[in-house]
Amino acid sequence: MGLSAVQLRAGLDALAAIEPAFAAAIARVGYPAPRLRDRGYATLLRTILGQQVSVASADAVWRRLHDRLGDAADPALLTAATDETLRAAGLSRQKAGYARDLGEAVLSGRLDLQALPVDDEAAIAKLVAIRGIGRWSAETYLLFAEGRPDVWPAGDLAVQLEVGRILGLPARPTERETRALAEAWRPHRGAAAIFTWHHYGASSDAPL
């Protein structure tokens, strides 16, 4: 599971002591709620299903997949399913291929989601080796499902926007700049990321 409310608050309090702009932002919008996901195959599969579609659409595909397979969280059932079954559930040919690759990696032991490398970059490399899982998906999985406290998804547009807003920058920083800015926030960058999404929801109408 991800960072608990207690862990999240402690991380943000430590971050506020490092960066006064975060202290001011926390005072404005408060602490975020935890973002918790289950560790394992089902969470990664749902990440794949959710790519480039709305949350509601992804949830609908998940429900149809569950209805047709009997248990959408069982990789053996998905890898054994026909292409017609997966299409009927709403998976495109590309997403069906990604889902099969993930299921086969888990079943073969090539991807052990209960024993990913302790080093964050090594864990990210292990995840992105699976087709359909990019760096952002790997980072958010490690943050939400494993609660890794220093994962920093700097490629996320909302993270970039809110780092710019919180720090009072004249423009949205690039991914490279966002990574560089956060170096001083180690080892609390995971809490910082969750806070930026919370801040985005609270101030998305405000100009940068």
CATH class of the largest domain, anyone?
Mainly Alpha
The count of DSSP E runs of length 2 or more, i.e. the number of strands, is 0
Overall shape? elongated
Q: Give the tally of structural domains.
A: 2
Pick out the low-confidence regions. Answer: none
Briefly note the structural class of the backbone.
mainly alpha
Level of helix content? 55-70%
Reported CATH architecture of the largest domain:
Orthogonal Bundle
> Secondary-structure element sequence?
HHHHHHHHHHHH
- In CATH, the topology of the largest domain is named Endonuclease Iii, domain 2
Largest sheet: none
Distance between the termini: 33 Å
Percent range for β-strand residues: under 5%
Radius of gyration: 18 Å
Mean pLDDT, all residues: 94
Instruction: Give the oligomer, counting copies of the same chain as homo and different chains as hetero.
Output: single chain
Structure annotation, total helices: 12
Describe the structure.
62% of the residues lie in helices and 0% in strands. The protein has 208 residues and is mostly helical. It folds into two domains: 86 residues, Orthogonal Bundle (Endonuclease Iii, domain 2), CATH 1.10.1670; 73 residues, Hypothetical protein, domain 2 (Endonuclease III, domain 1, Orthogonal Bundle). The chain is elongated, with a radius of gyration of 18 Å. It starts with a helix and ends in a 5-residue tail after the last helix.
